[in-house]
């Protein structure tokens, strides 16, 4: 036999042996399809729509199964019961962050999204408190969102009711809310610094959902040895961080500890309070990364939801008209909508929930990891194993939401038209890692959409029947097709 063939055979045997050892080693992992050497179960997963492949596999292996992404075992949890049992009932055990090599290279374990342990707990708790207005000085978060909603309406007015693609304008508003929270002030939509920031964020969001980056995340060796778009993510990340550092230096010069203006000031004050603690997590590195995380996690998510939301409202003009009737009745034409209005607006509340349920923005959540060897059902999952939770399987559950593939605000209304809460509403995930920006994002979605519908009638450029709402990408995120609409002032 040729020496090369012998070598290939030996290598394959070694790989199979190592996979077999991993599967039957320390833990008792759930069952799953047999993996191939090196590529694992990649061939069984449609890269275009992973959550659909997971759904198919759950029909064969049940709600808890193991898949190999490359050589790495990943436990998949499918359906409300399994997701809730892990993320909520065993919250501490399932609160680790699973590896995501490309963005991890940029953040090096600092900040919130990719940190773990004590660092994650402390920076997360601080960020949550700050985003809930504790210590943020005189201006509330709601005030900042309302200001942006008014500016958004002015920008939309400039389109003069002619057909436009709303992507850019709807991208500016959520980014500006984060600017106001982190950097004190919003920017004009034409400001060059603002446009640069938006460009870096958009480019990174697009590259991170590309198939190449999915490959790099499963085969981390590619990141170091191959050229490719993942290097651009790292470069853009470094540019954004230099900008944030520059802003931190400006803040340090004008800091008044009795009058914090924004997130950076609050963090700098905490750093000052802990300056004698050698183990303190309140360091410049964690401040830069936490600010970066909030920008990255809080911009494209909210703007894509708004963009997808308007697409659904032009597809279903009867839903938009009913929401407008409620707005007219509760708020009228002139007063700025505020969060107190929401409790008197069950229909609008249901519309916003249904938009988030229907679009299923992050179908397979961010990867989690177990923080210790964990007994789950009849299995033993070794510490550090990656956990993938299908949020799709919860948001599209057909017992909780009859006809889950149909956009129907009735999914969140009872027979008398009151708002009906659902434990299955998990677009922000659940448990200890639940989105830090949930409160902020829900405020933005309610205030932006209500303000838009208060001031404009939305008009499709094609017959609503022909508006296609199928996502064009359903990888890490679900993205709507590109479209145009007219904002007709009321
Ligand atoms: C519609 C808008 C949004 C959606 C659908 C969304 C969804 C999510 C999801 C699914 C996760 C992963 C949770 C997990 O690991 O289990 C997450 C994490 C996170 N989100 Fe959001 N998000 C949105 C807006 C925001 C905003 C506005 C911010 C800004 C503050 C934000 C900041 C974060 C952060 C910092 C994390 C990491 C949390 C951690 O690892 O502890 N998100 N988000």
From TrEMBL:
The protein's predominant localisation is endoplasmic reticulum
Q: Does Endoplasmic reticulum appear among the keywords?
A: yes
Top-level enzyme category = oxidoreductase
* Statement: the UniProt record of this protein carries the keyword Endoplasmic reticulum: yes
Obligatory cofactor(s): heme
Q: What is its EC number?
A: 1.14.14.1
Q: Which SUPFAM superfamilies match?
A: Cytochrome P450
Domain of life, per lineage: Eukaryota
Q: Where is the signal peptide?
A: 1-25
Keyword terms, alphabetized? Endoplasmic reticulum, Heme, Iron, Membrane, Metal-binding, Microsome, Monooxygenase, Oxidoreductase, Signal
**Entry-linked CDD domains:** CYP2C-like
Record's bilayer topology term: Peripheral membrane protein
Q: Which PROSITE patterns match?
A: CYTOCHROME_P450 (PS00086)
Q: Where is this protein found?
A: Endoplasmic reticulum membrane; Microsome membrane
List the PANTHER family hit by this protein, alphabetically.
CYTOCHROME P450 2C18, CYTOCHROME P450 508A4-RELATED
Similarity field: Belongs to the cytochrome P450 family.
Question: What is this protein's name?
Answer: unspecific monooxygenase
> Which gene is annotated as encoding this protein in its UniProt record?
LOC101404812
């Amino acid at each position: 036999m040729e020496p090369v063939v012998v070598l290939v055979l030996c290598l394959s045997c070694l790989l199979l042996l190592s996979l077999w050892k991993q599967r039957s080693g320390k833990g008792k992992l759930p069952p799953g399809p047999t993996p191939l050497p090196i590529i694992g179960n990649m061939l069984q997963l449609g890269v275009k729509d992973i959550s659909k492949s997971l759904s198919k596999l759950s029909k064969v292996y049940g709600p808890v199964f193991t898949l190999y992404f490359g050589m790495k075992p990943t436990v998949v949890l499918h359906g409300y019961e399994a997701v809730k049992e892990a993320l909520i009932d065993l919250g501490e055990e399932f609160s680790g962050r699973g590896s995501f090599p490309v963005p991890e290279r940029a953040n090096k374990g600092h900040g919130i999204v990719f940190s773990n342990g004590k660092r994650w707990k402390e920076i997360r708790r601080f960020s949550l408190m700050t985003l809930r207005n504790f210590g943020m000085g005189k201006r509330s978060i709601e005030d900042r969102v309302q200001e942006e909603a008014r500016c958004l309406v002015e920008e939309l007015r400039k389109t003069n009711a002619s057909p436009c693609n709303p992507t850019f304008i709807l991208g500016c508003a959520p980014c500006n809310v984060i600017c106001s929270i982190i950097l004190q002030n919003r920017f004009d939509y034409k400001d060059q610094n603002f446009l640069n920031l938006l460009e870096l964020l958009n480019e990174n969001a697009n590259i991170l959902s590309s198939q190449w980056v999915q490959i790099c995340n499963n085969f981390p060796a590619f990141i170091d040895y191959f050229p490719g778009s993942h290097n651009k993510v790292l470069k853009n990340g470094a540019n954004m961080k230099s900008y944030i550092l520059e802003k931190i230096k400006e803040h340090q010069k004008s800091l008044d500890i009795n009058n914090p203006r924004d997130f950076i000031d609050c963090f700098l004050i905490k750093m000052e309070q802990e300056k004698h603690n050698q183990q303190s997590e309140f360091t410049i590195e964690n401040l830069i990364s936490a600010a970066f995380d909030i920008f990255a996690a809080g911009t494209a998510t909210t703007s894509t939801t708004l963009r997808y939301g308007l697409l659904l409202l032009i597809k279903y003009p009867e839903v938009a008209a009913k929401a407008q009737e409620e707005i007219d009745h509760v708020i009228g034409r002139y007063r700025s909508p505020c969060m107190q209005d929401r409790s008197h607006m069950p229909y609008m509340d249901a519309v916003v929930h249904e938009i988030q349920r229907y679009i299923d923005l992050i179908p397979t959540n961010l990867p989690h990891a177990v923080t210790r060897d964990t007994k789950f059902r009849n299995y033993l999952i070794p510490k550090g194993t990656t956990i993938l939770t299908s949020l799709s399987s919860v948001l599209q559950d057909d017992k909780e939401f009859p006809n889950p593939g149909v956009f129907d605000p009735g999914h969140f209304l009872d027979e008398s038209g009151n708002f009906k809460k659902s434990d299955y509403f998990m677009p922000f995930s659940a448990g200890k890692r639940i989105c830090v920006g949930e409160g902020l994002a829900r405020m933005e979605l309610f205030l932006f959409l209500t303000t838009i519908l208060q001031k404009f009638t939305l008009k499709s450029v094609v017959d609503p029947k022909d508006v296609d709402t199928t996502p064009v990408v359903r990888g890490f995120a679900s993205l709507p097709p590109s479209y145009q609409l007219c904002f007709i002032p009321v």
